[in-house]
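Field: sequence (string)
Field: structure_tokens (string)

Example rows 1 and 2, in order.
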Amino acid sequence: MKTTDISEHLTIEKKRICEIGRRMWQRGYVDGNGGNISVRVAEDLVLCTPTLISKGFMTPEDLCLVDMKGKQKAGTRLATSEILTHLAVYQNVPKAMACVHAHPPHATTFAITNTQPPKHILPEVEIFLGEIALVPYHHPGSPEMGAAIGMVAPTHPAILMQNHGAITWATDVERAYWKMENLDAYCQMLLLAKSAGMTVTEIDAQGIKKLSELIS
């Protein structure tokens, strides 16, 4: 890719990240300086949000560039302290090009109660998320957290982190954010059913088989 092409690519992705950050903040998925977003812009380069900033009020100039080891290459602000978690996804899932980490209330309710959401309930969840993973607690941004995420990421595009929040990945940042919306909406439905004393029913085996054929 030519230098001018790389510059244009970075400009576009920076604007997309800021837009996704604004949408996350508006929906209440992040508060204070919580959450982080990253996009892989080259084989060995990742664009990411900085630490200690509201995701609802970022500008393209705030964003950082790091290599695949987490070393910062560009940016006036310090890169997110949780970049190792994002890098673990990219290192283990070649097709992953973007990650979104947030603390959406309904999904995080499952995370803080160490509860894995059930599967085979909604067609959209089966198709776009599959089984939602739940990994044990590790200090945010630690190598241990990265290792736990990297282990399940290849088969789980939506992951809950115990006592922490959620991370989703996709082939671009818009789709990664969609998965976060899908995840929190699904968890909200499950919690509403539980609070109303209703029993959640599963899609039958034949229905799951047909959904599997759509995915494959």
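Row 2 begins here:
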Amino acid sequence: MKNVVLFVISFLGIMAGGCAAYLFSREKPALPPVFNPASNPYSNGVFANGILESDQTSGENMSVYPEVSGTVREIFVREGQLVKRGTRLLLIDPSIQMATAQQQQAQAAAALSMLEELKAQPRAENLHVFEAQLEAARASVKTAKDTMEKQRMAFELNPRSVSKDALDGAINAAATAQANLEVAQKQYDLTKAGAWTFDIKNQENQYKALTKSYAASLALLSKYTLTAPRDGVVLSINATVGSFVSPQGAYDQYTQGPVPVMALGSPQASLNVRCYVDEILVSKLPSPDRMKAQMSIRGTDVKVPLVYVRVQPFISPKISLSDEKPERVDLRVLPVIFRIENTKDLNIYPGQLVDVYIGE
């Protein structure tokens, strides 16, 4: 009986193994691909990685950096907004620079007042004072001379009536009064002549210097307000109210490095594709008059024809488009720019990576 049970169990195990082998050996039909991979539409086409950017005559998307450092007080635009040249984008706290400009404005105003005071000399009130002092000095001279003459006449009539010391004192007093008169006369003439030309010239230079310092402070103050350098659309804003920005940009918490405060580009209807052609494939590129290309949007079956725009005639080191850091190996690429003729119904954005085939 025991052997029969073992035989039955062995038979069932063999049957289960056979069923399992049959089931696992069956080939399941492959799932259809979500999208067809990019294919070369040209017989001798050259493949290149591409990145979407704004349509412009030179350069790439415009990165906006401030020329001063400070804390962001206000942001006037939003991402995706169309802006005109001169539109205010962002305000950096200008309180310290504003106080400096106001101080220099006050200094320039004080220098101007001093200059006008020098040019307005002599002041009539001052001149009247020195005129009175001059008249008083003349009166003192007359009094001293009269006293001296009386002493001299008395001494000549009777030497014993006036001492020699008294006569000498009267003579010295008359001489002192005459000297005081000459000083008063010169002081009057000096006051009447007005300010010295060299003092006026020096004050003019000080006023000009302070005025230029104030103008420089105003120019620097204007740098605290970032404005759009040209018409375009705001692609990204990498600063927030209260964050610190500098000429190096703003700190990005995700990349943990500096990034532009803002990026501006052309409207969504005008986009270019910047292709990076490997240096070993540059010799296979057709001439510009026969060059055309096709762009494949990754993750879709969409293929878009491109129109040749220009070649940036400088072979530069290859970069990783994901983080824009130089590769370890010194590979170099030639940037070739194409234009997308019609972006209607295309869900694409600047900065997006695409696959491009270049042919003729």
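free_text_note (row 2): The longest helix spans residues 124-157.
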